[in-house]
Specification:
This protein is of the alpha/beta class. It has one domain: 3-Layer(aba) Sandwich (Oxidized Rhodanese, domain 1). The chain has 6 helices and 6 strands; from the N terminus they run H-H-E-H-E-E-H-E-H-E-H-E. A 4-stranded parallel sheet has the order 3-1-4-5, with helices on both faces. Strands 2-6 form a two-stranded antiparallel ribbon. The longest helix has 12 residues. The radius of gyration is 14 Å and the shape is globular. It starts with a helix and ends with a strand. The model has no long low-confidence stretch (mean pLDDT 96).
Length: 126
Amino acid sequence: MPGSIKDQIAAANETVPKISADEARRLMTEEGALLVDVRDASELAGTGKLAGATNVSRGMLEFRADSATPYHNSEFRTDRPIVLYCASGGRSALSGRALQALGYTDVHNLGAFKDAAEAGFPTEPA
């Protein structure tokens, strides 16, 4: 029997650790983590993004992360921690699971943009 998206997100949350805004900032500062906003451009236009984030929409993530594609973004490296976020945490959890399938081992889910911003993570225009 096929699972629902809710089931897929729950499975992703079991393998992609959820972290706080403070932990995300620490990973960026101390370990050079790449902060990735997987929301669509139209979402960023209304809210901006977390300071220092690279925007890669969920639909392009695997293409940007895989060095074998012509769409690869060199900021994505399997030896670098990756911190993902979206509007509510679901797409970032699924994104983390997709990156794990591509060989990324140090992947984290920051969760929701709004929660991180309210926790004091600085924002900037998209």
